Amino acid sequence: MSEGDAFKFLDKTSTTFQRDLIKALLKSKFSNPKTKISEDVIDIITELAKVMALEAAGRSAHIALMEKKKIVALEHVELILPQLMLDFS
């Protein structure tokens, strides 16, 4: 199996994040309760969360394939997280 095989499922996969949840998470970190968030910012952060989730899934699947595993486990996700965080920083 090739590296591309690990990412084939992405063509058939979609993910969604609730905009209200993203907004609440952002607001929970504001020091000033009067701080406002534009709808465009919420849209961008929501899209970024989708991209990160799908990228993490693909990278984890790739590691599982290299280990000849049929199931992606937490250990596979843990292996890709440091580089994923660096790539998205």
Describe what you observe in this structure.
The structure is a single chain. The chain is built from 4 helices and no strands. Helix 3 packs across helix 4 (74-87). The protein has one domain (3-87): Histone, subunit A (Orthogonal Bundle). 64% of the residues lie in helices and 0% in strands. By secondary structure, it is mostly helical. It is elongated, with a radius of gyration of 16 Å.
Strands, helices and their partners?
Layout: H1 3-7, H2 19-28, H3 39-66, H4 74-87
Helix pairs in contact: 3-4
Main location: nucleus
Family: Belongs to the CENP-X/MHF2 family.
Subcellular location: Nucleus
User: What order do the SSEs take from the amino end to the carboxyl end, as H and E?
Assistant: HHHH
Q: CATH architecture, please?
A: Orthogonal Bundle
Q: What's the mean pLDDT score?
A: 89
| Tally of separate domains | 1
Q: Would you count the extended β strands for me?
A: 0
Pfam family, one: CENP-X
Protein name: Centromere protein X
Main location: nucleus
Family: Belongs to the CENP-X/MHF2 family.
